[in-house]
Amino acid sequence: MTSGLIFALGLAAIVVLGLAIAFWMARRLRVKSAETDEANRRFEATFEQVAVGIAHLDAHGRWIRINRRFCEIAGHPRDALMKLSVDDITHPLDRTVDSSARAAMIAGELDYSQVEKRYVRADGTIVWVNATRSAVRDADGRPEFFVAVVEEITSRKEAEAQLTTGEAQYRAIFDSAVEAMAVIDAKGTIQSVNPSLERTFGYAPDEMIGNNIKMLMPEHIATHHDGYLQHYRDTGVKEIIGKGREVIGRRKDGTVFPLDLSVAEWERAGETFFTGVIRDISARKEAETALIAGEAQYRAIFDSAVEAMAVIDPKGTVQSVNPSVERVFGYAPSELLGKNIKMLMPKEIATHHDGYLKRYRDTGVKEIIGKGREVTGQRKDGSVFPLDLSVAEWQRDGDTFFTGVMRDISARDDAEIALRSSEEQLRLLQNEFAHLARVNDLGEMAAAIAHEINQPLTAIVNFLNTGLFIATEGYSEDGFAEVEQMVRDASQQALRAGNIVWRLREFVGHGIGTRTIESADELVDTAMALALIDARSSGIAVERVTGAGGVQVEVDTVQVQQVLVNLIRNAIEAMGGDHAVPHSRLVVSTACDADGAIEFTVADNGPGIAPDLARRAFEPFVTTKSNGMGMGLSVCRRLIEAHGGAIDVESAPGEGAAFRFTLPQYRSIPA
Known about the structure:
The protein has 20 helices and 22 strands. By secondary structure, it is of the alpha+beta class. Among the domains are: 53-172, PAS domain (Beta-Lactamase), CATH 3.30.450; 305-408, 2-Layer Sandwich (Beta-Lactamase); 515-671, Histidine kinase-like ATPase, C-terminal domain (Heat Shock Protein 90, 2-Layer Sandwich), CATH 3.30.565.10. The strands form 5 sheets. The chain has a 5-stranded antiparallel beta sheet with strand order 2-1-5-4-3, with helices on both faces. Strands 7-6-10-9-8 form a 5-stranded antiparallel beta sheet. Strands 12-11-15-14-13 form a 5-stranded antiparallel beta sheet. The chain starts with a helix and ends in an 8-residue tail after the last strand.
C-alpha cells in the first residue's frame, strides 16, 4: 500500500512537472511569437516608411516585394509593377549594365552592386535612380533573392549635367552599407548604428550606442532636439517622419556638414523607435555652389563680351543672346529669342542653314564647330557685312546646344582692301621707277648704241650703192647675180639693225609685271647682247661661263634683264676711264647652288670697291660714280627680292668685284 502510494505520488509529481513544463513552454512560445510579430511589424514599418525605395527580386529580375516609396519612384501602381520585371521598367540603354551586374552576383563574383540608371515610368517620363543591390544567400552561398535599395537622383543628375564635370556622390543604404543609419528610442537614445555612421561622423559604434542622438548635431540644433521629440509624443504631428529633410550634422572632430535625413517610425513591445537614414550631401552642396558661381561667371563673360554671342538648339532656335548682338545686328534680344538664327543671315545662306544642321545631326561631321570661319551676316536694316564666326558645342540635360561667337570684321576687310590698293600703287610706282632706270641706262649707252646701229646702216648704203653702180654702169655677164648678192647683204644688215632696235624697245618698255618661264642661260645671253654693245671695242675680254644646264626660272623677263644689264654696264664702267686696267676682263656666269637655286655672277678685275661702300652698295643714293644717282643697285635689290631671291657683292680694293644674285629654280608640278 505504501509503495503504491509512493508510486502514485511520484507519477503525479511527474505529471504535474510535465504540465508545468508544457505550460512554461507554451507561454515561452507565445512570447517568441509576440517577438516575431513585433519584428515583422518593425520590418514592415521600416520597409514601408523609409524614404528610399526597397524591393526584393528573384534571380530573373522579377519582383517579390516592393515598398511604397519604390512604387512612387518607379512611377507604376504596386499591382501593375508586380506583373513587370526590373528590365521592363529599366531604360533600354541601361539594361546591359544592369543585367551584367545581376549575372556577376548570381555567379558569386560580386557581393553587391551599385549602379546609376534610368527607369521609364508608366507615363513615359524618365527618372534617374541610384540602385544598390545585394544578394541574400543560403548556406551553400547560392542567392535566394536580391534586395534592391533605390533612391531617386534626378535632381542631382540635372545639376551634374549643368556642371558637365559633376561627380556622382550618391550613396546607397541598408545592405550596401554606404548610407549611415541609426536607430533611436522615443527619448533619442541610440540603440544601434551601421558601419557607415562611423565613416560619416567619425565615431566608433560603441561611442554612440546608449548616448543621445543629439551628439551628432551642432549645439544650436541639439539643444532643441529633445523638445522636438516631446512635441511629437504629445501631438503626434509628423514634421520629418516619412518626408525627409535637409539638416546639419556634426562630426566627432567638431566640423559641421549638410546632410539629408529621412526617418521611419516603428514599434516593438509597445515602445516606439525611429530609424534614421543619413546621407552626407557636402559634395552636392559644393557642386551647387560651384554651379551657381560658374553660372555667374558665365553670365558675366557672356553679357560683357565685345563679340556678339548667341546660343541655339540643334534646330537653330535662338535660346539666348548677349547685348552685343543688338549692337552688331540691330535686333533687340526679344526680337531674336525663340526665332531661327538664320534671320541673321542673307537669304542665299539662310536657305541652306537648316540643311547644315541636319547634316551634322545625321553625320556628326564638324565643318565649322571648333574651327571658325569667315561668313556673311545680315543686319536688321538688310545690310550685309563680313564676320568671323566660331561655334562651340555643349550639352545640358542630354540636349545639345551651340554657342556662336561673332565678330564684325568690316573694318578689317576695309583695311585689307586699302592695303591691297596701296600695294598695287606701290607696285606700279616700282615698275615706273624701274622703267626710268632703264631709260637712264639707255641714255648712258646712247653713243655706243648709235655706233652699233650706224655700222649696219653704213653697210646697207654701201651695198645698195654698189648694186646701183653695177646695174647702171658696170654691166657684165654676171651683173644681175652681183646685184642680187648686194641686195641680200643689204637685207641682212637691215635685219641686224632692226634686231638692235627691237632689243632696245623691249628693254626700255614699261612692262606689265607678268612672269614667264624662261631659260636662265637665255636670259643672260639676251641681256649680254644689249649690255656689251661697245665692250669689245673698249678692249675688254668677255668670258661667258654657262653652268645652269638648261634650268628654268619663273621671272619678269624685263626686270631680270634690267638687273643683268645694270651689273654688266657697271663692270664695264669700273674697268674704263681713269680706272682702266691692263687686260680688262669681264666674266658672266650661271650655276646651280647647293640649295637648288640659280646663281648669276657678274665679275670684273677692275679696281674693286672700298669695304665701307661695299657694305652699303644696295642702299639708295650710295654710288662710286662721280655723276651717278645711286639708285641702280637699290632698284636691282628690290627687283631680285621681289622674285624671292637675294643679291650681294664680294670685293676687295685692287682685286675687282663680283656681284651675285640668286633666283629660285622653277619646278613644274606633276599632273
